[in-house]
Q: What sequence folds into this?
């Protein structure tokens, strides 16, 4: 809930004016809570006196704005976006827990619809070998269930299953990545926003990412795999491979100019 520290509040009304849910009011020259809200935190962020707290989020450090630390050069950001690549070749090097925490920290601060924050982030690294066995076992069971059927999906799953015994550097589904990151949740728009932040933070940390729709599809073959990822039954929204790139890119890649219309 929102908590106003009255001894700090100067009654400026900034939090009241910026509250999207109209859950705050000025009362006797101080900000006050008049009803429950979505806990977006705008009130705490805008308060000049640090008088507003969100009790559910007290463990999260609120960082004061400093232009030198927060200002992002537009050209630097544009080049970072243009330089990002889908990485399909990884070094045999695990991702440090400190970097994983930094990635998940920006993921947790991603905007979500109505501030619901119903996503769960799962990184499989320490138990990756066990996880791979489960995934391929699930593919095998699915192929047996649909034995004799001919479709692009079954043909693709068969190619993954057939390639499971290859050298890890040549296996197609996991591509020798040291870790797999899943975003579990109902809303694909929330997951997509989080995935973009995850990828850009990973790049800033020297890591590479591949959005893996094939592995997502393979994951959906097995209830055992889905339960391993999330016992609460949230669906898989995004699947990403993550690790240190074993390839060096020298420049941005060319792209077709965006099609747009300004009305």
A:
């Amino acid at each position: 809930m929102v908590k106003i520290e009255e001894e700090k509040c100067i009654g400026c009304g900034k939090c009241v004016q910026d509250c999207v849910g109209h859950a705050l009011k000025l009362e006797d020259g101080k900000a006050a809570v008049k009803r429950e809200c979505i806990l977006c935190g705008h009130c705490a962020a805008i308060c000049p006196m640090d008088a507003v707290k969100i009790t559910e989020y007290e463990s999260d450090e609120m960082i004061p704005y400093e232009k030198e630390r927060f200002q992002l050069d537009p050209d630097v950001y544009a080049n970072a976006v243009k330089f990002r690549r889908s990485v399909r070749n990884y070094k045999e090097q695990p991702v440090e827990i400190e970097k994983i925490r930094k990635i998940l920290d920006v993921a947790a601060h991603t905007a979500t619809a109505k501030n619901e924050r119903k996503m769960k982030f799962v990184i499989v690294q320490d138990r990756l070998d066990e996880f791979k066995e489960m995934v391929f076992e699930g593919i095998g069971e699915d192929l047996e269930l649909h034995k004799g059927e001919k479709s692009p999906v079954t043909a693709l799953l068969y190619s993954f299953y057939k390639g499971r015994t290859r050298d890890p550097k040549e296996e197609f589904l996991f591509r020798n990545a040291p870790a797999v990151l899943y975003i579990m949740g109902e809303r694909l728009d929330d997951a997509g926003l989080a995935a973009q932040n995850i990828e850009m933070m990973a790049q800033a940390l020297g890591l590479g990412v591949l959005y893996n729709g094939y592995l997502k599809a393979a994951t959906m073959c097995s209830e055992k795999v889905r339960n391993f990822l999330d016992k609460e039954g949230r669906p898989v929204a995004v699947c990403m491979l993550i690790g240190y790139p074993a390839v060096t890119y020298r420049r941005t890649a060319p792209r077709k100019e965006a099609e747009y219309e300004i009305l």
Summary: The chain has a mean pLDDT of 93.
